[in-house]
Amino acid sequence: MSMPPYEVLSKYYQKLIFDGEYDRWTEYLLTLVKGNAPSFVGVDVGCGTGIFTRKLKRAGFDVCGVDISQSMLTVAETISRKERIKIDYIKGDMRSIALFKKVGFITVVNDGLNYIEPKDIGKTFKSFSKCLQSKGVLIFDLSTEYKLDKILGNNMYGDDSDELSYIWLSEYFKDEKKVDISISFFEKQGETYKRYNEYQTQYAHDITAVKTALEENGFELKSITNRFGGEISQTEERLLFIAVKK
Ligand SMILES: C[S@@+](CC[C@H](N)C(=O)[O-])C[C@H]1O[C@@H](n2cnc3c(N)ncnc32)[C@H](O)[C@@H]1O
């Protein structure tokens, strides 16, 4: 059965993706929000299952989560309810977000902007710019072309456990600077397994184009670093951007 992005992955996302490294990284991102946001009100865009959104909320921020995938939001809502954390999750496309009031920060964490086609990156920054108050901060990361091509691209991952088995195949297309990901899930249902196929595409962004798009949409770029704020190496897998609305 063929499914849209994150329809099946949402159920297993936390288990498959997260580890102590993600926790350490998001603790660092939290210090950046604390140190840069002009107010406590913000939006975690591409919030997924809400791991970072909950971290922001627990740190005292008045934050809501926005994501295009209802399945991811449903998982986020279920966890928030269980952990008794009140967060509004809104289904929306980051290319055209509309808020009732302007906010002091926007975070887009863990590849959210890699799902945006390069032709739409300016439109997306425009939508963020419209939501932010003056001096509001935008913090986002991008997986690099090196990662999409050399680490993810033309590779296969998988796991085999009782409850779930999966095969993750990715193919990088150099001309289009994109990686197509196909995940086959084999979910245990009684004595048999049901197979679901999910497809995703991530895009590598040209850094000069990102800088130009930020500038053209009212942002001043404060820094581009590796994901922990350090120097960028030739084989960097993830870059971290901090930009401020002028
Ligand atoms: C890799 S997940 C990251 C989720 C979360 N930020 C985290 O750190 O776990 C990327 C998320 O971006 C969302 N996304 C992709 N395209 C989007 C769009 N156009 N608008 C809003 N969210 C989008 C996906 O649904 C997915 O939940």
Supply the number of structural domains.
2
User: What compounds sit in this structure?
Assistant: S-adenosylmethionine
Helix amount: 25-40%
- In whole angstroms, how far apart are the ends? 47 Å
| Strands, total number | 12
Along the chain, the helix and strand elements come as EHHEHEHEEHEHEEEEHEE
Global outline: globular
Q: How many helical stretches? A: 7
Radius of gyration over C-alpha positions, nearest whole angstrom? 18 Å
Structural class estimated from helices and strands: alpha/beta
Q: What does the largest sheet look like?
A: 7 strands, mixed
Write structural notes for this entry:
This protein has 246 residues and is an alpha/beta fold. It folds into 2 domains: 2-144 and 206-245, Vaccinia Virus protein VP39 (Rossmann fold, 3-Layer(aba) Sandwich); 147-202, S-adenosyl-L-methionine-dependent methyltransferases (N-terminal domain of TfIIb, Single Sheet). The protein is built from 7 helices and 12 strands. It has helices spanning 9-17, 20-36, 51-58, 70-82, 121-131, 145-152, 207-216, and strands at residues 2-3, 41-45, 62-67, 89-91, 103-108, 132-143, 155-160, 164-173, 178-189, 192-203, 219-226, 238-245. The strands form 2 sheets. A 7-stranded mixed beta sheet has the order 4-3-2-5-6-12-11, with helices on both faces. Strands 1-10-9-8-7 form a 5-stranded mixed beta sheet, covered by helices on one side. Helix 5 (121-131) packs parallel to helix 7. The termini are far apart. The site of S-adenosylmethionine has 18 residues, from helix 3.
